[in-house]
Amino acid sequence: MTDAVTLFGIRHHGPGCARSLRRALETLQPDCVLIEGPAGSEPLLAHLADADMQPPVALLSHAVDDPQLAVFHPYAEFSPEWQALQWATQAAVPVQFIDVPAGISLAWQQQARRAEETAADIDEAASDEEAVVDETTANLPHDPLDWLAHAAGYDDGESWWNHMVEERGDGEGLFEAIAAAMTELRTHAPQRLRGDEAQEAIREAHMRSLLRDARKAGHARIAVVCGAWHVPALAASVTAAADKAVLKGVDKLKAQTTWVPWTYRHLARRSGYAAGIAAPGWYDHLWRQPANGSRAIGWFARVARLLREHELDCSSAHLIEASRLADTLAALRERPAPGLDELNEATRSVICMGDDAPMRLIAERLMLGDALGSVPSAVPTVPLQRDLEAQQKRLRLKPEALSRALDLDLRNDNDRQRSQLLHRLALLGIEWGRLGAVGRSSRGTFHEVWQLAWEPSFAVELIVASRYGHTLALAATARALEQARAANRLSELASLIDRVLLANLPDAVEQVAAELQARAATDADPLALLGALPALANVYRYGNVRQTDVAQVAQLFDSMLLRASLGLPLALADLDDEPAAQAREQILAADRAVELRQGESQQQAWQHALHIVAHADSGTPLLRGLCSRLLLDAAVLPLDEVRRQLSQQLSPGAEPLPAAQWLDGFLNRNATVLLHSDALWALIDEWIAGLGEEHFVRVLPLVRRSFAAFAAADRRDLGLRVQRPVGASRAAVTELTWDENRARRALPMLRELLGVADG
Amino acid sequence: MSTAVLRQHAEVQFAEELDQLRKVDTRQRPGNWLMSPWAVVTYLVGGRLDNGFEVSAKYIGSRRLMEIAVATLATDRALLLFGVPGTAKSWVSEHLAAAISGDSTLLVQGTAGTSEEQIRYGWNYAQLLANGPSEAALVPSPLMQAMKLGKIARIEELTRIPADVQDALITVLSEKTLPIPELASEVQATRGFSVIATANNRDKGVNELSSALKRRFNTVILPVPASEEEEVSIVVKRVAELGQALQLPAEPPALKEVTRIVRIFRELRNGQTEDGKAKLKSPSATLSTAEAISVINNGMALAGHFGDGVLRPADMAAGMIGAVVKDPVQDQVVWTEYLETVVKERSEWKDLYRAFREQA
């Protein structure tokens, strides 16, 4: 190796590395920068100078023929690669990516997928997920840093590396030290058993040959930025012929690469990105706050601000004590300065009083962070958009700005898929189609009527949505899950289930249902549970029209109904007017839902709960009346029993106001029971007639309101009914007297109109 | 020490371990500490010393928690050990004091009747009447002693102490002095002084700490046993010990029965089934390991005196419901829900389900 080449072994997304690298590049002033990234993507680097290019962003490469195959190279501001790119752009130094072209990585991914499918084609969804995994995963299947860390007495590679590299301030000799460590590691590390050894060899041969080309091109000072693991391989002297032999005949797919906005969430290891880091937010903090005494304090200050925003107490004195504890912990563990572990433990112990809930907030908002990058509008399209275009073509749905109606017959395969496509887009927040009111209400039918109108802004929304996945199905699933986690109310979750079923996303259905189940178990409010029932019942009842699997929904419905039924009597005790009125709507909706479910045991559980409410002394009168009425309508409560209750509730001893409320609930805006039961009619009549003037005036508005809710026809019938004396038969009133002669005169005309013969 | 003592103090019982640790301990010690923080942590969680001596584990659980506790005391902050009953709070506090100060006896037991004199100082009234207020008439509290000697003072059940009495601690913890206005003097804490308080985080409501006092403590929450196996083995061991002491006529319960009880306790306590598939509501009851032990003891007594000597589901149903349903309204809903959605579904738990239904 000649002096022309300087190798910088880095860790992807390491702020300490990034800082040292930046400093080293300033000193070295290379005339060519080689970076471990997909070769052939250099044209995209032109966008780096654009002000709209804000990290975190990712280079996304996908196979042209199969957008499900995709690899990402994400960069945050604290990624050494990003800093090298920035430096080179500013210094106008040529940059060359030296890793294998994306097409080769995609071909490997395809092979892996095929191998998986032949091994077990059971879990299709799982393999889809794995396709998302970054290409750099092939890098370090078992983190070799772990071996070094264990030798140094640390728990895991990440905290060791953090202490040794990222959280330190000095940069001198860093890269020599890393290179030395990695050389040692590669000589002694156990033979790796994973099948990607051949791929590693190809990648390193590719990097070496491009390095050779750069040297041939006459560059005098070449800087190479690559994963630390590869440094020894690049430094090794291998002949050009040997590398050529390795690279010969390697499969390659046609690939397309573009920039997409990225998030810190997707940089985190727990998002499934294997070269990910545990706490991007912490690295961001390390990058912004250079190593000195104020770093821990700066972190605590951010913690304090976050907690105060959420109305949790946190004073400056807390921060002082927390940083003292963090320092002492670091000393006890024989570390030069507190790391993230120490800071978190100090925060929990001093500021949060040992409580976990604020710590979760900190993990979510600070350690992970919610940064979202942006890319200039000039960059080429993303695979999600390609997927949409492909589906539009297949289903013959052209995007048109002009609004037009589309009537879909769901029995027809093509139309059903169109409906699913529109529902999926709606889940992603792209309202290309709006479902007409007719379609909504006539869910039981085979028709959906959509209003389609394509807007140019949808293209941008597609790019934004592309971070959820690179096909519509994947993206809509991921988005639905995010909504499920963010949902506040059970009813929101229930209607979300409805939407994902309509969009035919089985994975999402399963997981949203699981989320709903988990929330239902811990939600203390039975009324909230009731609120979720109608949507579920709809799904259950009409799901079959769309050939969706509803067994899980039925089970969910049953368990939620059971829970709600158990808690209902308690929840309905002594409600004020307004909550009682809300509860009435929920009970009515739930009652209809239970009817739709058409299950014997569900019906029984529900009616049992209604029975308890109807007979509870402490219950709210309105709701007790309502429950009695529902039971009467379901023919569970015998008429005699109802009569007894009515007379008890309306007896002279009862307070008039609760009695009127009870009656309101019992009548339930429906006069049929009054019209057809003389006994009940008589009881109510008696009650009203028996009220004293003062009481009458008090209950009058209530009773009037109850009666005003009846349909006009019912009210008229009631009026007629009042004219009859109590106990008189209906026939007596309907008997008519008429003049036969006058009636006859109309007959000829009628015959003519009806076209019947004389007779 | 006489052998007739029922229970030795930690510093006596583990004198040899403390000695050995001090011998090998070359690390820096905070003022007035008998050993370095590292050695204290080793004493608590156990380990093998360089000279081959084996230190037994006093606390079985996370080493990091013990490190936080020890680091807190090293920064001269007070330490508050929080946890449900039976999570070894007092045990840890005693051993910390024994290791750091060599003395675990400077103890204030917090009760509803704890007065300010027990925290600050009292008077020898004969002396007071005869000679007026003087140093000689003063009866120092354990806390005052600890301040003078630079040792660790322990306060048990801090939240049971009335709020106005708790406030007496604030000056001690922030100013590190204890004024004696009657003598126009004060006691100033010497290096090494600190306070370890324990409190039950389930009955916060008794006398919740004021935020002023809270702020002067670093809190470490001691968790319940992490796994079902660990908890079952603790319960089996304690039940056997207690059964012997109480001379219960029933034979010790089969592991199967213990496992079921522990599982019910764990599931209700954790708010989810052991397989993690379904979430549950938690009752207001503590449901500590200690209560599981007492449910089994209770059941054994019933089986021995009134049954056939073998612990049957019916014997423990009453005790179990009593342990779970502390609030007759809310907890009853939680319990019924658990019964109907979890117990009923487990085919091998049919007998248990029937026994619970009959009790209800």
Automatic annotation (TrEMBL), chain A:
Q: InterPro entries in the record, alphabetically?
A: DUF5682, LolB
Tell me the superkingdom of the source.
Bacteria
Pfam assignment, any one: DUF5682
> Per its UniProt record, what PANTHER family does this chain match?
OUTER MEMBRANE LOLAB LIPOPROTEIN INSERTION APPARATUS (PTHR30634), PTHR30634:SF14
Q: Under what name is this protein listed?
A: 4-aminobutyrate aminotransferase
Species: Rhodanobacter spathiphylli B39
Automatic annotation (TrEMBL), chain B:
**InterPro entries assigned to the protein according to its UniProt record, in alphabetical order:** ATPase_dyneun-rel_AAA (IPR011704), CbbQ/NirQ/NorQ/GpvN (IPR050764), P-loop_NTPase (IPR027417)
Q: Domain ATPase dynein-related AAA, which positions?
A: 79-217
Stored Gene3D superfamilies: P-loop containing nucleotide triphosphate hydrolases
Q: Which domain of life is it from?
A: Bacteria
Q: Report the Pfam families cross-referenced here.
A: AAA_5
Any one GO molecular function term: ATP hydrolysis activity
Per its UniProt record, what PANTHER family does this chain match?
MAGNESIUM-CHELATASE SUBUNIT CHLD (PTHR42759:SF1), MOXR FAMILY PROTEIN (PTHR42759)
What is this protein identified as?
Answer: ATPase
According to its UniProt entry, this protein's organism is: Rhodanobacter spathiphylli B39
